[in-house]
Write a structure and sequence with these properties.
Elements: H1 4-28, H2 37-44, H3 55-60, H4 68-71, H5 94-101, H6 104-110, H7 119-123, H8 144-152, H9 155-158, H10 168-173, H11 176-181, H12 192-196
């Protein structure tokens, strides 16, 4: 038969055991989100890294306040497998993605035309893209014609898509709108997206 004093000793041992177990769990457990941006840039913030992400350009980008793992959700720790799984813009930009998929660009891409404009083709790298109201953004109003010209100025490559206007960029540049957009007040005149749309872009016959 266990004496009273012995019972107290056993009880005291169990209390100590559970107390230490609790403290160990509370203070020694790894955080649930250990991979912050600083951790990512400790590897990818140097020009010799692959891939290299410029910390300053990322900070100044539209995504600068976001966490890397917000898009790269498959990363759970600093040491991770490569290559990473592709990231889709639709996880955040659902409405824009839906419009894009029903546009001429989206349909062309869906049919296998790899040359069709994608999100990055217009907005730039997700690690560097600027807000549309930033003059350095490729989709800033005054910069829209130059951005569209990346593809539409290549008239020979564009022939296979049977566009209604064979040389839309040169035609625009010579128009009253194109001449005005090259001046200081260019942001106040019509650019490509004002007439054709942006994410929901469709040809005039649609």
């Amino acid at each position: 038969m266990i004496r009273g004093s012995t019972k107290k000793q056993i009880f005291f041992v169990f209390v100590l055991y559970f107390l230490f177990s609790f403290l160990n769990h509370a203070f020694c457990e790894e955080p649930t989100d250990p991979v912050d941006n600083a951790t990512c840039f400790s590897c990818h913030g140097y020009p010799s890294s692959d891939p290299y992400i410029d910390p300053e350009k990322f900070k100044a980008s539209a995504h600068g306040k976001s966490q890397c793992v917000g898009c790269h959700s498959g990363i759970k720790e600093a040491s991770h497998d490569t290559p990473l799984k592709p990231v889709g813009c639709s996880s955040c930009h659902r409405a824009e993605t839906e419009s894009y998929l029903h546009s001429d660009h989206g349909k062309a891409l869906g049919s296998g035309a790899t040359e069709a404009a994608t999100c990055q083709a217009c907005h730039g790298s997700p690690h560097e893209l600027r807000n549309a109201f930033d003059p350095q953004s490729s989709v800033y109003r005054k910069n829209i014609p130059q951005t569209c010209a990346r593809c539409h100025a290549k008239t020979q490559e564009m022939e296979k898509f049977n566009l209604d206007i064979k040389e839309p960029v040169s035609s625009y540049i010579q128009s009253v709108h194109g001449i005005a957009v090259q001046k200081d007040n260019g942001a106040q005149v019509a650019v490509c997206t004002d007439c054709h749309g942006s994410h929901a872009l469709n040809r005039a016959t649609n």
